[in-house]
Amino acid sequence: MSLAVYPGSFDPVTYGHLDVVYRAAGVFERLVIAVLVNPQKAPLLPADERAAAIREAVAAEMPGPAPRIDVATFDGLTVDFCRAVGATHLVRGLRAVSDFEAELQMAHMNRALAPGVDTVFLMTSVEYAFVSSALVREIARFGGDISPFVPASVVARLRR
Ligand code: PNS
Asked: How many domains does the chain have?
């Protein structure tokens, strides 16, 4: 069985992330979306809320693949989480060439740490190429409308 981990901060999850989830679910038999708990950063949403928002969005937006997709939180190294769940691949999304340099560096570091876990890049759909969690956080902090960029599960949580 092919099992991949899609790690990220997902603060918050965007339609761009969900596009990558959908594509990865077409490639791998099982996918674990791994939400990083980073004590050094003050997130917009706590990790368990970020994970819950992803779970709801996956169930609502991709009912077909949803049973093969799990969502978990993790701390520490991504490759340790991959090994703990038995993943052979790590998925990352690329929106533009500008994403590639940092992602390539991370992929090589992760390969050095865990040669058995290979990174696979999936290209985000062009309609989401400009969407970023950082900009969504900024728009949300100033009270702007984030509904074009994030699923309803995120909008509802931020309204609360
Ligand atoms: O959504 P992001 O913030 O771009 O995701 C970055 C993430 C979580 C994939 C990366 O920071 C990460 O893997 N952090 C866990 C700690 C780790 O493994 N660091 C070494 C990376 S080479």
From this structure: 1
Active site residue 89: no
108 is catalytic: no
What's the gap in Å between 8 CA and the centre of ligand 1? 6
Q: Is 73 contained in some domain?
A: yes
Smallest Cα–Cα separation from 19: which of 33, 30, 9? Answer: 33
Catalytic status, residue 41: yes
Ligand 1 centre from 126 Cα, in Å? 23
pLDDT tens by residue, 83-106: 999 999 999 999 999 999 999 999
User: Per-residue pLDDT tens for 100-141?
Assistant: 999 999 999 999 999 999 999 999 999 999 999 999 999 999
Three-class SS state of 160: coil
Looking up residue 34, the CATH number of its domain turns out to be 3.40.50.620
* Residue 98 lies in domain: 3-148
Q: Which atom of ligand 1 is nearest to the CA of 106?
A: 22
Residue 109 Cβ < 6 Å to ligand 1: yes
Q: How far is the CA of 34 from the centre of ligand 1 (A)?
A: 10
Residue 155 maps to a domain? no
